[in-house]
């Protein structure tokens, strides 16, 4: 399967979505990500039993925080995809890419670019 | 432990909206275990505040520190050398910690990031409930280890009111009736005699209604 997904997406690997904490998601936005999505195994199929269920709740919590500060909780999503389901992975990637493009750039990224226009150390 | 929860971000932003540099101070004890104001929550709040400011085109400099305890002079001293560099302190301790901080650093604006709720414990992960109201004269010895002052909505001392229905309190059907719990436990302990013994009129002057309380132990004073 030579499936492709949009090259705007940067993959960060974690051993289990249960490892993903609120602060990790927040920092991604703080550094200028336009959107973030967490991809876990199917519910009920977590190798560590509840890692993906806990990730789902943390994503929910972080969405609220993002709403509260006006960045927008809809820039963050959680998906559950079977490890072997390549086609669905690439479909979700395109879906998320489209959704974030429709939302436009994150206000954080826009401001970072404006405030640090000549600072090359910030890549957003 | 003292159980607290974070204030809405809007309220915290309101406190510091004119600041450029703030110090967020967490506490390593009660509020760490109730996930309200420990190191992790300090980092999340710092990140949220920075983004909220950035969104408005402003940059907020935040220093994150988590002290062992904020209700302790010794640990509060640890920030003496850096505190003056900031426009304000946002304390993520309970109300006690916030006040100790404000008393120690008189010229520094200190704002609370939490709403302090009660003395309680974790029933399970993510669920905390109240257990003690610090009445100053503990009666748990007569009430099978269950506090009617805290857990009975009416603070009754001698058995349930008429609203106790099938083990539940009349104010909320999800709330167990404290006196039903006490009775059940006395029965299980074979101590129903305790139930027949009247608890005399309580002296509430040792409770909050007697004004702010204080303990002085001369054997420990320096
Ligand atoms: S400051 Fe408050 S939260 Fe921190 S240890 Fe003291 S009582 Fe507990
Ligand atoms: S009787 Fe008083 S001290 Fe004892 S648990 Fe209840 S409120 Fe606390």
Helix and strand pattern of chain B: EHEHHEHHEHEEEHEEHH
Q: Per CATH, which architecture of the largest domain in chain B?
A: 3-Layer(aba) Sandwich
Please count the beta strands of chain A (DSSP E, at least 2 residues each): 2
Widest beta sheet: strand line-up of chain A: 1-2
Q: What's the total helix number of chain B? A: 9
Q: Strand pairing plus helix content of chain A: what structural class?
A: mainly alpha
Mean pLDDT of chain B: 97
CATH topology of the largest domain in chain B: Rossmann fold
Mean pLDDT of chain A: 93
Tally of distinct domains of chain A: 1
Highest-level CATH class of the largest domain in chain B: Alpha Beta
The separation of the N and C termini of chain A measures 31 Å
Hetero groups = iron/sulfur cluster
| Rg on CA atoms of chain A, Å | 15 Å
Summarize the structure.
The complex is a heterodimer of chains A (124) and B (222). By secondary structure, chain A is mostly helical.
Your description of this structure?
The complex is a heterodimer of chains A (124) and B (222). Chain A has 124 residues and is mainly α. Chain A contains four helices and two strands; from the N terminus they run αβαβαα. Chain A has one domain (17-123). In chain A, strands 1-2 form a two-stranded parallel ribbon. The N and C termini of chain A lie far apart (31 Å). The mean pLDDT of chain A is 93. With 222 residues, chain B is of the alpha/beta class. At the A-B interface, helix 1 and helix 4 of A face helix 3 of B. The complex binds iron/sulfur cluster (SF4) (2 copies). One iron/sulfur cluster binds next to helix 2 and helix 6 of chain B. One iron/sulfur cluster (SF4) is lined by residues 132-135, 138-140, 147, 149-150 of chain B.
């Amino acid at each position: 399967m030579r499936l492709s997904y949009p090259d705007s997406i940067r993959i960060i690997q974690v051993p289990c979505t249960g490892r993903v904490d609120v602060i990790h998601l927040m920092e991604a936005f703080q550094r200028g990500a336009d959107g973030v999505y967490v991809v876990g195994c199917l519910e009920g199929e977590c190798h560590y039993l509840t890692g993906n269920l806990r990730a789902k709740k943390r994503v929910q919590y972080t969405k609220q925080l993002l709403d509260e500060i006006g960045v927008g909780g809809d820039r963050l999503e959680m998906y559950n995809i079977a490890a072997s389901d390549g086609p669905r992975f690439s479909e979700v990637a395109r879906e998320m890419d489209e959704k974030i493009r429709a939302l436009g750039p994150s206000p954080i990224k826009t401001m970072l670019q404006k405030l640090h226009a000549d600072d090359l150390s910030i890549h957003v | 432990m003292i159980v607290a929860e974070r204030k809405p971000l809007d309220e915290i932003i309101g406190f510091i909206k004119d600041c450029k540099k703030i110090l967020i101070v967490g506490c390593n004890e009660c509020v760490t275990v109730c996930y309200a104001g420990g190191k992790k929550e300090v980092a999340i709040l710092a990140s949220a505040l920075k983004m909220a400011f950035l969104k408005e085109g402003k940059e907020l400099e935040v220093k994150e520190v988590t002290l062992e305890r904020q209700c302790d002079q010794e640990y509060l001293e640890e920030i003496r050398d850096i505190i003056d560099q900031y426009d304000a302190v946002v304390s993520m301790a309970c109300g006690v910690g916030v006040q100790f901080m404000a008393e120690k650093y008189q010229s520094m604006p200190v704002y609370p990031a939490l709403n302090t709720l009660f003395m309680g414990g974790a029933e399970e992960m993510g669920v905390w409930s109240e257990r003690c109201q610090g009445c100053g004269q503990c009666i748990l010895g007569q009430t099978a280890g269950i506090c009617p002052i805290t857990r009975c909505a009416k603070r009754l001392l001698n058995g349930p009111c008429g609203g106790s229905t099938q083990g539940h309190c009349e104010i909320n059907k999800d709330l167990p009736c404290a006196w039903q719990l006490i009775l059940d436990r006395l029965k299980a302990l074979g101590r129903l005699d305790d139930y027949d013994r009247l608890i005399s009129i309580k002296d509430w002057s040792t409770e909050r209604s007697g004004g702010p309380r204080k303990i002085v132990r001369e054997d420990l004073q320096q």
